[in-house]
Amino acid sequence: MSDPHFLPLVGAPPPERRDAARNRELLLDAAKKLVERCGARSVTMDAVAAAAGVGKGTVFRRFTSREGLMAAVLNHSETEWQALVMGGPAPLGPGAEPWDRLLAFGRSRLDTTLLHAELIREAGRSGGRARGAYSFAATHVRYLLTQLGVTGDIALLAVALLAPLELPIDEPETLDDFPAERVFEGWVDLARRIAGR
Amino acid sequence: MSDPHFLPLVGAPPPERRDAARNRELLLDAAKKLVERCGARSVTMDAVAAAAGVGKGTVFRRFTSREGLMAAVLNHSETEWQALVMGGPAPLGPGAEPWDRLLAFGRSRLDTTLLHAELIREAGRSGGRARGAYSFAATHVRYLLTQLGVTGDIALLAVALLAPLELPIDEPETLDDFPAERVFEGWVDLARRIAGR
């Protein structure tokens, strides 16, 4: 027990856990790419296993069920998206003008909620939306509106500005009337009205 | 069997059913008044029975459970509110200028969703929002925006304009930060921006 190889390194998980975490990420990345390419509904555990180069048993062991996998992909995707907003390339990430960041946010949030609405459906009871997903988006919009010099009740204006981007999740049945291109175009007009531009 | 008293009148429910329907309305009105006065959480079946002047057994027979009663009050209240919008006194009902109707709609919808958010919580599994409640409000806002001569994607603008009024139902935990007076004030500002006034 005095062999230093048996002592965990301070601040680093033991190698087995690190491997497990890496495998989990690989599986989630493979699953997310398949979902983006083919739609959540048509993605099978077999296809995820094949894309990640592991056996189907491994996928089941990690995620218990197809629903469990979909719920994990949902969380993974939201976390990735938040990281892009906070530190990814401009204009979605920092460094661009606030108006350009707001437009990039709108486009990217809409695509993300379209994907997530599908994942929430496929995750069934395992799923539900990542806690904090809405409040992260709301905080970011409030920040950008403030940067744009918008006055008034910023929190309430942010609620209004986010609403059309949430349509895929809140009212999925209305999406036939609101294809993504139309939502984005209308949303830019809304953002201009709210920001007074 | 040839006695006409045994034949139901064409187009009229039999007397027993008419009485039952009237009793149901009386109970729902009594329950709704109590909910408005004391808050849904504190309303008991005993209090509703006493207010309507019937035995508690009658209330249980009609609504099965406290949750069932709360769900019925929710539907009853939404139906009443829709009737006021369509044919009640101006400015909520027809006859006022579209801008005044829009302001009356915002105030009244906010109060209604505050009440309904409570009822949805108390109705538990029996409840859930009345189907069509959102789409009725959305249709009315689209109509008023059109009357106001607003151009653009009216359906999408209506989604944005409704969102803050839906806060009590969609994000009840944020209500501590958004008391009703603040929501209404911010909402009028939002309506001005969206309608370009």
TrEMBL record, chains A, B:
Residues 21-81 form the HTH tetR-type domain. The keyword Lipid metabolism does not apply. It comes from Nocardioides mangrovi. The keyword DNA-binding applies. Keywords: DNA-binding. InterPro entries: Homeodomain-like_sf (IPR009057), HTH-type_TetR-like_transc_reg (IPR050109), HTH_TetR (IPR001647). Transmembrane segments: none annotated. Residues 44-63 bind DNA. This is TetR/AcrR family transcriptional regulator.
